[in-house]
Design brief:
This protein has 121 residues and is mainly α. The chain has helices spanning 2-25, 29-55, 66-77, 83-101. The relative contact order is 0.20.
C-alpha cells in the first residue's frame, strides 16, 4: 500500500505543478481552463489521499521524482509554446494514473468523481 501511496502522491503533485505552469504560461485559453480544472481536481484528490494515508499510518512523499522534475523543468524553460508538451504530459499522466488505480482497492472517496477522458488537444 505504501508503494501505491508514493506513486499516487508523486503523480498527483506533478499534475498540479505542471498545471500551474500551464495556467500561467499556456497560449490557448482552453488549455488554461483545463489546467485550472486539473489544479482543482488533483489538488482535492491529493488532499483526500493525504487524509487516507494518515489514517492508515502511511507516509506521503514531499518531493517529486526525477522524471517529473525533468518534465517540470522542460515546461518552465520552453521558449516555444508549452501547450502541446503540457497536453502530452497530461495524457501520459492520466493513462499512468488509470493504470495505477486499476486493481487497487482504495476507499471510494479518493477516486475521481468523473471521467476526464476529454483531455484538451
Amino acid at each position: 500500500m505504501q508503494t501505491f501511496v508514493n506513486k499516487a502522491a508523486i503523480d498527483g503533485m506533478f499534475e498540479v505543478d505542471s498545471s500551474k505552469i500551464a495556467q500561467d504560461n499556456a497560449k490557448d485559453q482552453q488549455i488554461k481552463v483545463f489546467a485550472k480544472r486539473m489544479i482543482a481536481d488533483h489538488g482535492a484528490a491529493n488532499a483526500k489521499l493525504q487524509k487516507i494515508a494518515g489514517e492508515q499510518k502511511l507516509q506521503m512523499p514531499t518531493q517529486s521524482n526525477a522524471e517529473h522534475k525533468g518534465d517540470l523543468e522542460r515546461l518552465q524553460s520552453t521558449t516555444a509554446s508549452l501547450d502541446q508538451p503540457y497536453v502530452e504530459m497530461q495524457r501520459k499522466a492520466h493513462a499512468d494514473t488509470i493504470g495505477l488505480f486499476k486493481g487497487v482497492q482504495m476507499p471510494a472517496m479518493i477516486v475521481p468523481d468523473r471521467d476526464d477522458q476529454n483531455v484538451v488537444g
